[in-house]
Hints:
- The structure is a single chain.
- 30% of the residues lie in helices and 27% in strands.
- Strands 1, 2, 3, 4, 5, 6 and 7 form a 7-stranded mixed beta sheet that branches.
- By secondary structure, it is α/β, with parallel strands linked by helices.
- The two termini are 18 Å apart.
- It has a single domain, classed as Maf protein (Alpha-Beta Complex), CATH 3.90.950.10.
- It contains 6 helices and 7 strands, in the order βαβαββαββαβαα.
Amino acid sequence: MLILASESPRRRELIKKITKEFTVIPANVDESSLHIPAHDLPGELSKLKAYDVYSKYPNDQVLACDTVVILHGELMGKPKSVEDAKRMLRELSGEKHVVISGYTYVSKEKEVTRTVRTYVYFNKLSEELIDAYVKSGSPMDKAGAYGIQDSEFNLVNHIEGSFDNVIGLPVEDIKSHVFNK
Length: 181
């Protein structure tokens, strides 16, 4: 059985593009224990998460993923408050940033750890748009305080790379490097 080591509802939806047969068992990892450059964080965290779950279920396949948003070399986590979300969106407004997902797949047969980058170009955002978006509640549980799938708010001008990666799971890369589909 494939185990998705993530509580993310977005990852649960995206994994269905690969398989309908999976179960969810979140990893129990202290993410604050890693003190490494932001660009390396997703790959290392995905390994920790995958092996945490795999150690308990060694006869299964485990897929773990971690996604970060980086603007001007700085990590943008999930907003801590409404004001923090507005600050992040103001910083992203009119800018290019990178979304990096690291994923690790572990089974008896193989281990794959990869990182996938997508460059995201934001539109210039008005204060009214930022206020309306934050009021919707959508940015509050997302790295960088936005969801690319929230298309009705017209936050993103264009991307270079994988749309699914920005949501939180690089489906195309996983298909080709893990499941060879």
